TrEMBL record:
Its EC number is 3.2.1.78. GO terms for molecular function: mannan endo-1,4-beta-mannosidase activity. InterPro entries: GH, Glyco_hydro_5, MAN-like. This is mannan endo-1,4-beta-mannosidase.
Amino acid sequence: MDSFQTTFKSILSAVFIFLILRVSANGPLESMVIKGENQLACTSTNHGHSTYRGTYDLGDMEEDEAWSMVQRKGNQFIVDDQPFYVNGFNTYWLMVFAVDQSTRGKVTEVFQQANSVGLTVCRTWAFNDGQWRALQKSPSVYDEDVFQALDFVVSEAKKYKIRLILSLVNNWEAYGGKAQYVKWGQAAGLNVSSDDDFFSHPTLRSYYKAHIKTVLNRVNTITNATYKEDPTIFAWELMNEPRCTSDPSGDKLQSWIQEMAIYVKSMDPKHLVEIGLEGFYGPSTPNRYQFNPNTYAQQVGTDFIRNHQIIGVDFASVHIYADSWVSQTITDAHIQFIKSWMPAHIDDAEEVLGMPVLFGEFGVSTKDPGYNSSFRDTLISTVYKILLDSTKKGGSGAGGLLWQLFPDGTDYMDDGYAVVLSKSPSTSNLISLHSTRLMLFNSMCTWNCKWGCKKKHALEAFLFHDDL
């Protein structure tokens, strides 16, 4: 039993005793049924998924259960018709590290560490186009060794009960991205020059669709599961941080998203699909420009509301980088921005889009002037508090993914945003506490037979106090 599960079991035991005493003193809690001395009515989120089991046997934490696909129901993620709230992380380089046996162990290590603090979702790259250790060496030509490395990542994630969001291409040049597709087009004699031609040229679109088809239909050489049938995969991401600055109207990117979302769904209707946006408001909602971090954000060809109204897109994606968008120097303005940026998107996801919103990247760089670990903890606490406030009322704030989790010995890969749990005990404790609260919230919701419990509950002080 890992340390997180041990902690959670201890907390549940303490909660059970507390509730028994409360019931004895004040009468039965509404909708609560006590099945026995060692059982607690709950929604189990053990093993990275939610499964209603009627009662939670405190001695049964390690039982291995079959996974079901994550689905969307209105503005919530669900598994087996029970809420699934995400506390997760990014580690983009897993596939590349898994290629070499000398570094493959780091993949296992990061999943072990994530599991130990209750993280249940990891976002990573299912692409590396035309560069060192390329997955796709040229259009539709793949390196089988690298593909088997991705197989290992998926298999290892399942072993540690972590679901994956797999991103299919990059907006940026790292790991190839749209620029590499344009280079391939030029080599084939196409009349393309701008990286943004990736979004509009029919041949480049066909290159990308072929990649989608190959990945979705891949049969894992370790588990024998086809990717598009594997519940280890939480969702497909169309692109990491798409931008199309050559067309500020957003029409070019809108057309691309429409075609690709439907294409993915036509081949894999079971998995969720998201775009990978940063969340900037665009021309369709000028009244929301006030929430953008700067005036440039409305000119990059993305449009949070319009883009997410496309058929085939299941949930909204937003990133949070105050140190890149507001100012590099650490200041309280970063926290104030988050307190404006996040609620605006949660409200829009709930009231306009009617879907969950996942904050797919958030973090702060240790390289920023004025940085200290206390500020990072404050930033993470702020994100978690806003998400918990949404969770408490059944809102669209479905979770967040920290950028990014690193194991020991990978400092040379650090972009400034790395969180190494062994070196960051206070941050590790914050993550673990948030994971525990989400688990207990699911249990609380089952007691009250609904999500977003409006009535006060005995656990509310533990779950939602301000000093997160």
